[in-house]
Amino acid sequence: MKVLFIASKIGSQAKWLVGVSFLSAVLKKAGYQVKLLEIEDKKEINQVNSFIKSYQPKVIGLSVNSHQYIYAVEIAKRIKLEFNVPIFLGGVHSTIRPEEVIKEESFDGICVGEAEDSFLELVKRIERKQDYTDVSNFWFKRKGLIIRNEIAPLLVDLDQLPFPDYSIFKYFKDAGQKEITPRFIFSRGCPFNCTYCCNHVFKKIYAGQGQYLRFMSVDRAIEQIRNFKKQYNFRHFKIDDDTFSLNKDWVLEFCHKYSKEFDMSFECNIRIGSVDEETLMAFKKAGCNLIKVGLETGNQDLRKEVLGRSISDNEVIELFDLAKKVGIQTFSFNMIGIPKETKETIQETINLNAKIKPDFMQVTAFYPYPETLLGQKCIEQGLITKGHIDSYMDESVLELPGLSSSQIKKEVRNFTYNVYKQYDKKKAVKEKIKQIKGFIVSTPLLYRISRPIYRLIKKI
Fold first, then answer.
1. Is 160 part of any domain?
2. Which one, of 193, 200, 290, 281, lies nearest residue 236 by Cα?
3. Range of the domain at 348
4. Among 354, 356, 383, 459, whose CB has the most other CB atoms within 10 angstroms?
């Protein structure tokens, strides 16, 4: 039986979706045919029905985050106009806002939580023409009523899962022999309760259903890298676990076993306060050349009281100094426009970055995700004045006292330049040139004028 996944990635830079990759692997292991249709531009929505007509799937699954939900609704509505095929929605948005999503008529059901076992059972029931309305983790509509099935216990032993199926994604299909940069995730869950993140929402949903933070075994993680290396050409990869550095024993074992088998560099996310010199030395020896750190804001009070991150400036500075001492490059994540943000607190974030001198930086506008503690506070305080946006990279939906959404956008765009100009004039100039190029490319008239001028300069 054929199953089709549709992933809306409009405005997104994601190369793959972890949930879909595992679902595809589980289904293929059970003998089902699987294809993925990636929608990267709004115009591509028009092509969905012709793809379905060609492939003839018996089940369709859509996976979306909150930014992509409106496109999932549009896609499902178009499909239902022409085809009588069951459509199920999963992903973060259906998990945190099931009561809203289940009301959408175009979805035959929605998944709340992790779906590997539940979706496989659902597909099996559909294939056998059996009733599936009691499948755990799924909600359905029948005769005007909503069937809310219970959440199944969490899968604790991640080693039981097949390796995620990357082959269905364009990025890997187009790879051929060219060098790529894959991403790996070796754990699930997070023990922290940052107010802007959905993990504290997930923990409530899964209360009493097993250990929320889970790691696969080191041997399984190494095997996954080994298996992937056989299929694709890469010399560097990213470890995307939010909690990779939390379990010191796991990390030290991983670094020891990894360094004995591979000669490839990698980068990973680090939680401030979770690593010491011994851990960073093990990282360095294993080939880690970059650690990525969530700084978010340079104001300690905002970090603690608004974001729920009890991390001091001294801890931030110590980690970056230690990384430099060991010889590992650093990367800081920053957010602009969080509630209670002011021009002064933005300057503090700039100043702290200038002090720690990260090798790379990312800055985004804060986005109030639904059902998160901070997202709900933004609603209660009437701070959200804009509707849908495709990405949080530079645009804000908030109007803060003394800081408008347009000012937040400007601060985001100028952030890296403002950091560099404090200590590295050359990098500051490069950043300004990059900004100007980006502005020209995004302005059609300027772009048309600039292209022949650029070609002429190249000939001189």
1. no
2. 290
3. 175-423
4. 356
